Amino acid sequence: MASTAAPPLLTIEGLSVHYAQFRALHGIDIAVGVGEIVSIIGANGAGKSSLLKAIVAQAGPRVEGRIAFDGIDIRGRATPAIVAGGIALVPEGRRLFASLTVEENLMIGWHIGRRGGLDLAGIFDLFPALRDKRHQPAGQLSGGQQQMVALGRALMADPRLLLCDEISLGLAPTIVNDLYELLLSINRQGIGILLVEQDIRRSLAVAHRFYCLLEGRVSLGGRPDDFDRDTITRHYFGS
Ligand code: ATP
Question: Domain containing 178 — which CATH number?
């Protein structure tokens, strides 16, 4: 369903994730092509975060299926090796170290990443609001600024594929607009983006393709223009 026309960057086949007795993902197939923005939509608990976490080996030990990045199965690799290979996650809730400075949080991305991309100066050019706050603890920043740090940390890892989990959650619409503009410019540089959002409208507006998850299964997939809003909503809620 909904395979990519671009050369494959990430190809997921038959991915299942179990947490104890509970199965969060039921053998799903997902693809992201080089330079694509692919959106994952779905209601609470549909399995969106589990998908992103499984890609970077953060979904616990019971993950089955094939996760191929550049044609090589990376399932079973440890998270640092996956990040060093070119996949970076902006996690839900940002997960910054609140007592470390902005600069120290950003440098974590550089240390675990590929070390070929943006340096601190480059990040401050992208996010000028962070420049003056570079020596402040990240926990003292506003929500929008913390999200900039989380995104900057991921970009410092020099990813070829960026995974974004609910980056707009709890932020003012103007800040979300800025973040999405930035995602588009990152994508124009050839970086693939797998975007998890509950805001269907915003996420489908930027996506080349999307998958809708419903209770751990892909209920719909394709280009956003292929379906009318009612069809997408029905597959989102399973009604
Ligand atoms: P949300 O939008 O609420 O973040 P989601 O689509 O990202 O939801 P997941 O977070 O992947 O969904 O969760 C899918 C299902 O797996 C949910 O029923 C959730 O309760 C369950 N789940 C997620 N993480 C764990 C865990 N560590 N242990 C047990 N169950 C979990």
Answer: 3.40.50.300
- Within this chain, do residues 105 and 21 fall inside the same structural domain, yes or no? no
56 and 6, same domain (yes or no): yes
Ligand 1: centre distance to CA 52 (Å): 11
pLDDT tens per residue, range 90-119: 988 788 888 899 999 998 878 877 777 788
Which residues form the pocket of ligand 1, taking CB atoms under 6 Å from any ligand atom?
A: 19, 22, 24, 42, 44-50, 198
pLDDT tens track for 187-203: 999 999 999 988 888 99
pTM of the prediction? Answer: 0.93
Tokens of 183: 């995602």
